[in-house]
Amino acid sequence: MGSFKSRRTVVAAAIILVFAVIAFRLFQVQILDKEYRITAENNALKYETIYPARGRILDRNGQVIVDNKISYDIMVTPFDVKEFDTLAFCRIFDLDTAFVKDKFREYRLYRRKIGYQSLVFKRQVTSEQYNMFIEKSFLFPGFTGVPRTSRSYPYEGGGNLFGYISEVDADYIKDHPEYKSGDYVGKTGMEEAYETLLRGEKGYNIYLRDAHNRIKEHYKDGEYDKTAVAGTDVTTTIDGTLQAYGEQLMRGKVGSLVAIEPATGEILTMVSSPGIDVNQLSDISKYYKDIVTDPYKPMFNRAVMSPQPPGSVFKLVNGLIGLQEGVLTPETLYGCHRGYVVGNLRVGCHGHPSPINMYQSIMMSCNAYYCYVFRSILDNPKYESVQQGFERWKAYTESFGFGTKLGTDIPGEKAGTMPTVERYDRLHGKGRWRSISIISLSIGQGEIGCTPMHLANLAATIANRGWFYTPHLQKDTPACPIDDRFKERHYTMVDTAHFEEVVKGMELAINYTGGGATATVARIPGIIACGKTGTAQNPHGDDHSVFITFAPKDDPKIAVVAYVENGGFGATWAAPIASLLVEKYLKGEISPERKALEKRVFDGNLMHKVKVRR
Questions:
Q1: How many CB atoms lie within 10 A of CB 209?
Q2: Of 73, 180, 171, whose CA–CA distance to 117 is shortest?
Q3: 391 within domain boundaries
Q4: Which residues partner with 551 through β-bridges?
Q5: Which one of 146, 174, 190 terminates a domain?
Q6: Cis bond leading into 355, ω under 30°?
């Protein structure tokens, strides 16, 4: 009997405890928790979202390169809409009546889910349309106008670099619950990379409805209203004037132009051509279909997303590896009689004096010379096999950043391609391939592919005599410090002393006056620049024109790559483009004797040479 009473006492105590917890929780949410009360009373409240101004994007000199302008979204609260003159409404906003009918059919279908919410009906209407609407807004109950900021662009060009913003969709909201329908987000380029800084923080006003659902006043005299917080301005490493000039140089060409400050890894210019017209960026939804169906793929950022063969500029890497491995000295002589011939294999070359040393091989861009160098690296007796020598060669090339993502702050960056022993075993049979089997790697062809950013980084690495900072777009400022990874020096596996020897050859390529130099077109009055031409073989049409350069020789301020698809020899298009960019940056203007060259580049149109699927 006592046991039964004790159990009954325990049960009673448990019931009392449960009711006490429930009572406390009700007291908490109804009396103490004001946030809960606001939510619970939502049917009597109207939330009006205040969208923040998006942060601006500045260039390295503080000039605005992406700005804001006022635009307007037309909002609708379906619950508040009464009968209105559809034709008059459509005339204001240049709409089809079918569009309006479809919208309200959707609102009726989801009326329970929508409730008292306000939705975007028409976004980014013109100021003229907005003013007409305001004058007649009394005719359209349930519709309101909300000021928003859209983007404007003081400089012509840079569409791929800046990127665009657009409204979030259901899939994006699912993965990013901090966003709501009607919010904008950076989708590509800098807008995407710096989204967390640029977006700002939304605010809102809360209004009280009366029994007839009419807006009466601020809820609790605005106690719970929230002020919008503008986004943070982001300072980039880009030189706005130089970027605009680079866009001019690349107009009418397919390819990339990238410039880096060697001492910091800061990207001064990044052009992908053809690019998105900045006039289309502020209203991307209007032009999106045209952009994505353009056969030249203007949304594709070739600078970091288009792995291509590096061509002859890669001879510099093989030369540096040969020097480090001790199989090459600057005085080493090799002969060339219009190519390298072994049995039935022939790697062609242009006519030039023979034999030549390493400096001359860079200056004249000799193919045969680097076939000898490459084979001596892989066939070095200190390695047990060609495969082991290849692995060592591969480690060297990867220390320059090839075959890997550099780790920039640019969305969509690709690693490029780097062959492996396993790949060659599959192609030729395990252990059955030799250095001659992969001889195309000696001149930057074959299975190696790199982005123009890799080649710009190579130019910066040679300018620094053996090290580089990861290229980046964000300027290091107290307000927005850069990630520590951009402050870390990356050293190649080649000693600094060997870079000086390669630099001498690059200096000759531009400045030698005795004949045979391949890059004299890149000579800049009053500036000692160093460079290397490349002609990357292309099985789908004309060869690609490639050129890397840095200047001045002994105090490098800028390192550049120009990669012009189907542009032919490196000296034809890439070298003039890159050297003009260098001169513009270092001197502020183009020398009178090079104005004709500038005009030829500006007027040049190679679009017809590029094969595209239409």
A1: 18
A2: 180
A3: yes
A4: 558
A5: 146
A6: yes
Does position 10 have pLDDT exceeding 80, yes or no? Answer: no
In a domain? residue 549: yes
φ/ψ of 406, rounded to 5, equals -70, -25
pLDDT higher for 39 or 55?
55
- What is the rounded distance in angstroms from the CA atom of residue 22 to the CA atom of residue 34? 18
Q: In what order do the strands lie in the sheet with 266-273?
A: 266-273, 255-261, 558-564, 544-551, 530-536
The number of domains in the chain is 2
Q: What is the percent of the chain where pLDDT is above 70?
A: 92
Distance CA 385, CA 462 (A): 30
Please write the tens of the pLDDT for every residue from 212-221.
556 667 777 7
pLDDT in tens, 147-203: 888 888 988 888 888 998 888 888 899 899 989 888 889 998 999 999 999 999 989
Question: Letter for the amino acid at 91?
Answer: R
- Residue 408 makes CB contacts below 8 A (sequence gap 6+) with 267, 304, 453, 470, 471, 472, 473
Asked if residue 434 is part of any domain, the answer here is yes
Tell me the C-alpha distance between 109 and 263, whole Å: 60
Give ∠ CA 341-347-546 in degrees, rounded to 5.
155
Domain boundary among 146, 177, 192: 146
Both 134 and 252 in one domain: the answer is no
Give tens-digit pLDDT for 332-375: 999 998 999 998 899 999 989 999 999 999 999 999 999 999 99
Residue 40 pLDDT: 40
51 located within any domain: no
Q: What is the CATH number of the domain that holds 428?
A: 3.40.710.10
Residue 293 has pLDDT above 70, yes or no: yes
Cα–Cα distances in angstroms (integers) from residue 174 to residues 151, 155, 182, 404, in the given order: 26, 36, 14, 32
- Cα–Cα nearest to 529, from 554, 563, 546: 554
Q: Which residue has the higher pLDDT, 278 or 577?
A: 577
Range of the domain at 276: 240-609
Question: CA-CA distance, 481 to 467, in Å (whole number)?
Answer: 22
> Taking residues 507-529, what's their average pLDDT?
96
